[in-house]
Fold these 3 entries.
Entry 1:
Amino acid sequence: MQASTVTAHAVGGPTLLLEYAGLRLLTDPAFDPPGEYPREPHESLRKTAGPAMSPDEVGDVDAVLLSHDHHADNLDGAGRAFLPRAATVITTALGAQRLGGNATGLEPWQSTQLHTPDAGSITVTAVPAQHGPDGTDHLTGPVIGFALHGEGLPSLYVSGDNASLAVVQAIADRLGRFDVAVLFAGGAWVPPISDYVTLTAERAADAARILGVRAAIPNHFDGWAHFTDGFEELEAAFARAGLADRLLPAVPGATVQVELDEAESGR
């Protein structure tokens, strides 16, 4: 029986190189070195670690899945310079207007197609992401996540910078369960918002349970001072939830792989 594989190379921060359906997909490219990133009129963000792979080591990609373009910890200077190396950049509608070029903008629940090397295709659907507690959208700006589906392929969810389990539940209610989830899970805390603006470790474990995933790939939990949870906290939270076997060790520089046969894929 043929197997379907998702391979993830952890670059660090929000950047993950995914091999899926014969395509190379990159999440939120951020390749700058450590440093301070001003956030007017508030305090700056501090990057504490550089990427585990350089842009040249990543190479050209079929698509960038860009959850949003307006925060430096999701798209920095070197990340912007990388975008022309993608055949397409899929992002928010406003982000595509700002970026131009090869960017395709989607509102939540809109979809686009990517053609695969075997003459098939996958559907990429923009899904909601709430980058903070209720009532803070005017501070954080529009953000999306992504749902990827294809015939005989694992269903794949990429959360983007989402902090809300209600949003995860709404996605599961509308699209069903997923085989694999990439969860942005550092528990980011950024003034002046007095709550988390991405999933904490506990919420990431809850999200994996809600989605019914067979594998959870953590992302965006390292390399910045505003993260409150690292991989150790993720391991502990998934263990408490009885999901320790679902969490993959996608720490920066690591490569992890999920392999599902056709009977398991695309449930």
Note: Residues 3-261 form a domain with the Metallo-beta-lactamase; Chain A fold (CATH 3.60.15.10).
Entry 2:
Amino acid sequence: MAHYEVRQKAAFDWPLAVAAVALKLDGSNVQAARVVLGYGAPTPWLSSEGEAALKGQSISDETAQKAAAAALGSAKPLSGNAYKVQLARVAVKRAILKAAGGAV
């Protein structure tokens, strides 16, 4: 499991986007995954699309990037927070790599 937060400042600031990822690995392949996003919607957002993009795959930079894109594929930003979609993609990708034991 891992989480990754995107902040404007390093300390004493609310995150702009956060992602939490839990992976169940079978060797190097993902057997099951949970992808949850925060600070982009009124409540935490469980992304079944991001989870589906990971299932059966081995974790790589490319797999993490595709899963992050899938996780935010149905995002509908408001007029003042469209920038958060890209921030959330980055948070998801980095949380996936961190959960798999990779360097972020």
Note: Residues 72 and 85 are 7 Å apart (CA to CA).
Entry 3:
Amino acid sequence: MNRDQAKEILLRYRPGRDDATDPQVAEALMLVDWDPELARWFEQQQRADAAIRAGLREAHVPDDLKQRILAEEKIVRADFGRRKPMMLAAAAAILLAGAISGWVYWREVNGWSAYRAEMVHYVASSYNMYIKADNFDELRQVLAQRQWPTDFIVPDRLQSVTVLGGGAMQWKGHKVALACMKQNNRNLWLFVIDKAGIPNAPDAETPRLMIIEDMPTAAWSQGDNAYLLAARADEAFLKKYLP
């Protein structure tokens, strides 16, 4: 997806009302994180939309408008005495709408949906598994050497799969531990991140399933960590390895 395609998709996207997990929207939002020019354009677009909506909500419709139209009244005298207060109120509404829009935008690009979409896209495309390990203990040792968190809990059902290695990644300043696995010629990936500071991170131990880029994923939390399991397989295969 290029910048122009992302703009076309994001022109129709409204944070908080539209589904950010839609594959095209998720990919466009991910491009926003990587492309500063696109990020500036998207922020300006969201502010403009918010200001227009706020202006429409604040617009005053005279109570006798219908009667005026029916009477074909041709002279409408504006009340200039009220213009200044109305302009100040409109300006305040625009500033407030901009602040709210910025907060919503921040939550969208820094929240769990954006994280999940980027992690799945990372393994769905070509990626480097730069830590080689034959089991989870060996993976933890390498992560510890890199001063990466190792306090993650591997679901019991994953203990029997073949561990290939993993990675020590970062996402918006948060450390992410990645375990790469394989079972029956199908790949699985377990991402672990400290959920503190990530809006809408999972808050329950019961996994929640969602399809991202045609890959089944499951998200849950345990302790201070949030877990994301993805598989290049069908949903039934993924469910076999959930806690």
Note: The two ends are 35 Å apart (CA to CA).
